[in-house]
Design a protein that fits this description.
Elements (H helix, E strand, L loop, with lengths): L4 H11 L5 E5 L6 H11 L4 E5 L9 H17 L4 E6 L7 H15 L3 E7 L2 H11 L4 E5 L5 H8 L3 H7 L12 H21 L8 H13 L7 H5 L8 H13 L3 E4 L6 H5 L4 E4 L2 H8 L3 H5 L2 H23 L2 E7 L2 E9 L2 E8 L8 H9 L3 E6 L5 H4 L9
Parallel strand pairs: 1-4, 1-5, 2-3, 3-4, 10-11
Antiparallel strand pairs: 6-7, 8-9, 9-10
């Protein structure tokens, strides 16, 4: 079993003197629990792993009981330090207040108890971390699996990754696509929406949110205004409702709407969104007609290739501190524009045989980006780009 890049970061921080809580946050089914179990197998530090799955949501005392038990084990063992890992912490109401109290108590009493918290979604952890635990934690983002990881772990080809995406738990099901699709819908998509999104805030029209998700995934790589989308959704409400729902889906790392690159912020924020999935498996589940049929339809396959590149870009944006946008000045366009501080990188994706694009030279003339890249036909291969360290662009 491979060890993801976050493993090294977590291991180094746990081996340091106790300073901060460590929080592993990310979407469902990306291996957060596996990662921390690998850590516990490799360190000599005594440890306890517990999960809040079986606890009642209103039982904040459950966290205190687990914490006190870890303190007792540290005392009895005579060890210099102890590790407590709590999985699915967000399932406990007001969990952050309890964690703050216990962590501060250990700090005051000099108890060398190190703590790792795991949460299924950045969305669910966001409120508690910002409100109660400010200054007490470090966040380690665990995103969707990339091409290099799926290739190493399962021997996938590039085309398989582009269509089936980066959910390791579903890798053995792709030979039976109907079964794969059902697993994704039942075990990943529905829990992500019903638990990671609907339980975090008041949603007055959950059916609209689900429709927005499915429609947005189907339009991944394309522009569609909220006004036009209103006509395709049942009882959709207004543009503000759709925009707020899309923000929630973005925070859950399911689907986002890229803004248009513009020097004028008003034009940027009022632009037509370009939909982008965080994992192409979501696009395939919602809009795919089957791997063989999509792969042999060049125009449609080009959308999957572009979405795979886009998923790779948005998946690392928060971690590496850059923004992903698009540019369009009809009829000219650039698929992706990355902005990091004062640096700009323009990226055009070519999933078919077309190698010319008038948009890229025009964008270069107008904005002088640091790099202008073509990914695909006539440029950097898609396979090489999906394994490229994006930090080198800045």
């Amino acid at each position: 079993m491979i060890k993801r890049s976050q493993y090294k970061i977590l291991k180094e921080r746990i081996e340091e003197p106790r300073h901060f809580l460590q929080v592993l946050a990310g979407p469902r089914q990306v291996g957060k629990t596996t990662l921390v179990r690998q850590l516990m197998e490799d360190i000599s530090m005594p440890h306890t792993f517990v999960t809040a799955d079986a606890a009642s949501s209103d039982d904040g005392a459950w966290i205190s009981v687990q914490w006190e038990s870890a303190r007792a084990k540290l005392l009895v063992s005579g060890a210099e330090e102890y590790l407590l890992v709590i999985d699915e912490i967000q399932k406990i109401d007001n969990w952050s207040e309890v964690v703050k109290r216990e962590w501060d108590l250990d700090t005051f009493n000099g108890v060398n108890l190190k703590v790792v918290l795991l949460g299924s979604s950045r969305l669910l952890l966001k409120k508690g971390l910002s409100e109660s635990l400010a200054g007490r934690f470090e966040l380690i983002r665990v995103g969707h699996w990339n091409y290099a990881e799926m290739k190493e772990a399962f021997g996938w080809t590039l085309d398989q990754y582009i269509y089936y995406g980066g959910y390791p738990g579903s890798a053995h099901l792709i030979k039976n696509e109907a079964r794969w699709r059902k697993y994704l819908k039942d075990s990943i998509v529905e829990p992500a929406i019903s638990k990671d999104v609907l339980l975090t805030t008041t949603i007055y029209k959950p059916a609209v949110l689900r429709q927005l998700f499915e429609l947005g995934c189907g339009y991944s790589g394309e522009l569609l205004s909220f006004n036009k989308m209103l006509g395709q959704l049942t009882d959709a409400g207004n543009v503000t409702t759709l925009a707020s729902y899309l923000t929630l889906l973005d925070e859950a790392e399911l689907l986002c709407g890229l803004q248009k690159y513009a020097v004028d912020n008003a034009r940027k924020y009022n632009s037509v969104p370009k939909y982008q999935v965080y994992n192409t498996a979501l696009m395939s589940v919602c809009a795919g007609r089957g791997f063989a049929q999509e792969r042999t339809t060049p125009d449609r396959w080009g959308r999957w290739v572009e979405s795979a590149v886009g998923a790779y870009l948005v998946g690392h944006a928060a971690e590496w501190d850059y923004k992903v946008l698009y540019w369009r000045d009809t009829p000219l366009e650039v698929d992706f524009v990355l902005v990091h501080q004062q640096s700009i990188v323009a990226i055009e994706v070519k999933g078919g045989h077309q190698t010319t694009n008038a948009g890229l030279p025009r964008f270069r003339q107008m904005y002088s980006p640091k790099y202008s890249l073509v990914v695909g036909s006539g440029g950097i291969s898609v396979e090489d780009f999906l394994q490229f360290d994006l930090r080198k662009l800045f």
